[in-house]
Design goal:
Elements (H helix, E strand, L loop, with lengths): L3 E2 L18 E4 L2 H7 L11 H17 L19 E4 L19 E3 L5 E6 L13 H16 L1
Helix pairs in contact: 1-2
C-alpha cells in the first residue's frame, strides 16, 4: 500500500511531510497512485486507466511543445519514472461579493434596505465590494459588536 504523505516545501520526505494527515501520496506506479488517492469524502474514485491516459496525454504535450489541454504555459518535463506523487486539493471560497447586505453599523438589511432588528454581520459573510480578509473581519466585527451592545 502506498504511503500517504502531506507535502511541505522541498523534498516530499520526512521531516518535510506529515504522513498521518494523508493529503499527499506517493506510489511506484500510476495505477497504485490512483488507488492511493481515494479520500473518504471523494464521491467518485479515480480510475487508474484515466490517470494513466492523462499522464500519457500530458507527456505528449511536452513532446510537441504545445499544451493542447489548457492552451497555456508550455509543459517542460515529462512524467516518466517513479516515484509518482499526488496531492489532495479542493477549491474553497475565499471571498464573496454576494453575502448578506449590511449598512455602516453592520446591521443586516433586507431587499428593501430596511434593517432586520438584532441581526448583525461582518467579514467574509457580508457582501459588497470592500476590503476582505482579517482587517475587514476585525473592523466589521468590532463595529457590529459595538452596535449590538447598544
Amino acid at each position: 500500500m502506498p504511503t500517504p504523505l502531506r507535502a511541505n516545501a522541498g523534498e516530499p520526505r520526512a521531516p518535510n511531510v506529515d504522513i498521518e494527515a494523508a493529503f499527499f501520496f506517493e506510489a511506484s506506479t500510476l495505477a497504485e497512485l490512483a488507488r492511493a488517492i481515494q479520500m473518504p469524502h471523494q464521491r467518485v474514485p479515480m480510475p487508474a486507466a484515466r490517470l494513466e491516459e492523462t499522464v500519457r496525454r500530458y507527456n505528449s504535450f511536452v513532446g510537441s511543445g504545445v499544451d493542447a489541454g489548457l492552451g497555456q504555459a508550455q509543459p517542460r518535463y515529462r512524467i516518466t519514472q517513479p516515484p509518482y506523487y499526488a496531492a489532495w486539493a479542493t477549491p474553497c471560497v475565499h471571498d464573496t461579493r454576494a453575502g448578506l447586505r449590511i449598512n455602516a453599523r453592520c446591521q443586516v438589511v433586507d431587499m428593501t434596505g430596511a434593517v432586520i432588528p438584532g441581526l448583525y454581520c461582518g467579514g467574509e459573510s457580508a457582501g459588497g465590494l470592500s476590503q476582505h480578509g482579517l482587517a475587514r473581519a476585525a473592523c466589521e466585527g468590532y463595529i457590529a459588536g459595538l452596535n449590538a451592545a447598544v
